[in-house]
Amino acid sequence: MMRLHLHLLSDSTGETLETIAKAALAQYDDVDTIRHFWPMVRSEAHLQRILHEIAQNPGLVLFTLVNTETRRTLEEQCRALGLPAVAPLDAVTDALSALLGQTAKARPGRQHMLDAAYFARVDAIQYTIAHDDGIAPEDWEEADIVLAGVSRSSKTPTSIYLANRGYKTANIPIVIEVPPPPALFGLKRPLVVGLTTSTERLVQVRRNRLLSLNQAPETAYVDQESVAREVAYARRLFTDNGWPVIDVTRRSIEETAAAIIALCQERRAGA
């Protein structure tokens, strides 16, 4: 396995840089990555301390620094050390400047300003937490999205991910013995999406869940035939009500959320 020292320098929180690095590294196998994370780099003295660490642990340097002098020092020192230093946002910023006819504002962390979108995201997170697992159906009309699915079909983690993207999301478990509340069938504003998965995958996930809780792993909750009936019941419910369905069997939470967001955008475009 190859070892890589990865130095991430940002004059803000570094969230953007971490996301870029994670996406790029996902394309490579058998790499032991040692991350050195340096947020809020806004002074020459701070940078010099970091450069000493970089020299001690040479590797790839990724940075998002808007201060001209700070980034020039970093680039010069990396060249002297023979290390690559990459500013991943430069190409995007240059293209925007050319198209817009404007010079980019050199303001560290400007994307984290407390604007309307920030407060909308906080509001979405609060709403989603308060409407997990079928809670408060009387408020579902306020939601942007309502997810329905059998137990352990990734409803809650998908809801939280969507909330972090600014979508108020409620979710409800579909249980054969307990019909959904009537409020679910009269919703106008929210997009109702059904989540489904394969019986085999659902049994595996549920069995692992029971084992993690030190509960008996052989119950109706993980019985193959019982689970198959649950999945079939949920699918019929989705079809009868004309709700879009997403199979999460081989999807990550991010992929499922992206598919749901695309459905929302299509719905808005057709409104």
Chart the SSEs and their pairings.
Elements: E1 2-10, H1 15-25, E2 31-38, H2 44-56, E3 60-64, H3 68-81, E4 85-86, H4 90-100, H5 116-130, E5 145-149, H6 155-164, E6 169-173, E7 191-196, H7 199-212, H8 224-240, E8 245-247, H9 253-270
Parallel strand pairs: 1-2, 1-3, 3-4, 5-6, 5-7, 7-8
Helix pairs in contact: 2-3, 5-6, 6-9, 7-8
Widest β-sheet, arrangement of strands: 2-1-3-4
Q: What distance separates the N and C termini? A: 52 Å
> In percent, how much strand structure appears in the residues?
15-25%
* Largest sheet geometry: 4 strands, parallel
Word description of this protein:
The chain has helices spanning 15-25, 44-56, 68-81, 90-100, 116-130, 155-164, 199-212, 224-240, 253-270, and strands at residues 2-10, 31-38, 60-64, 85-86, 145-149, 169-173, 191-196, 245-247. It is of the alpha/beta class. The chain has a 4-stranded parallel β-sheet with strand order 2-1-3-4. Strands 6-5-7-8 form a 4-stranded parallel β-sheet, sandwiched between helices. Helix 6 packs across helix 9. The longest helix is centred in the last third of the chain and has 18 residues, at 253-270. The radius of gyration is 24 Å and the shape is elongated. The model has no long low-confidence stretch (mean pLDDT 92).
Give a brief rundown of this model:
It is built from 9 helices and 8 strands. With 271 residues, it is of the alpha/beta class.
